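Supplementary Note 3. Input sequence used for the single-chain structure prediction.
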Amino acid sequence: MSEERTSRPEWADDGKMFATSYVKGNDRAHLAKENRSIKRKERSVEEYVAGVLNHDRTILAQAITLIESNAAKHTEKAQRILHELLPYVGRSIRIGITGVPGAGKSTFIEAFGQFLCEKGHRVAVLAVDPSSSITGGSILGDKTRMEHLARHPRAFIRPSPSGGTLGGVHRKTRETMLLCEAAGYDIILVETVGVGQSEVAVRGMVDFFLLLALTGAGDELQGMKKGMMELVDAIVINKADGDNKKKAEVAKEEYNQILHYLRHATKGWETKAYTCSSLYGEGIEQIWEVIEKFVQTTKQSGVFEERRREQMKDWLHAMIKDYLHNRFFHHPVVQQQLPAIEEDVMAGKQPVTMAAEQLIRLYEER
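The predicted structure, written as discrete structure tokens, is reproduced below.
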């Protein structure tokens, strides 16, 4: 057999034409190498801006990837893109959604998102996933958990790794939110990791914060932190269907009794509990009516815009803290002296305050 690039099998349908052809292994490797060597042309800032404004979901996804990158060249380009898009942001309703594991966050978001899309809204779902400690990537895979919503032409789902730090939530999710607003998405749903202080971070970037709870409120309330309940603008008892329906009503009343005595998250707005069934779509419309009433009430009182302004100020402070933190710990003198000073502190040879002042002094002097 001759050594040709394309080889033929020894059978054919009619004896004249071969049914298939295949590329030999060595040639496949050669073609793959050639393909890898062809670099995709990088888009300009102008191309990204035009694509986002034209509602191009592919370009929007690529712009978000730039935002999430920690490479210096990508960060600079991403900031230029954001600067150009600033006149087009801030026109959405930002809704944070959190809940205990098993509360059905993804099912609720899919049902709620589809309801909003059918009403003519454009919905972006930003899911703050816990990051894999090995790869750093998202491990929940929201597009596979919301497959129906992901296929809707008026929806955009972006699972973003938190990077294991709240700083990642502060910057990346906020900037991704702005890109989605510039792309014409008027409802932004931010799903939290659902653990620790991430709820506090998300509360600081949304207008309306919703907590999903389960039936069996007696047990649920035992594990519910008072501070968490004071962060939210509504509590929704999910899975209120079948045998759970009566239990959900009981849970709603118990939550409302407790909420009556707690400080409300938003000035001029009373936090209440509601029920819904994401599986059957029951109660979804009522929840949207509550959110619409919230937006109307807070805009009339000025609380809506005041919260937005305060959030921008808090974001500025958070960015400064992150920047100084990174500058300090990446400083060569600090990196050189830190291990020895840490050893002294752990061995009890030096007080923590004195050690911190020593490191800061070294940083400032150099």
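Residues 29 and 35 are 10 Å apart (CA to CA). DSSP finds 16 helices and nine strands in the chain.
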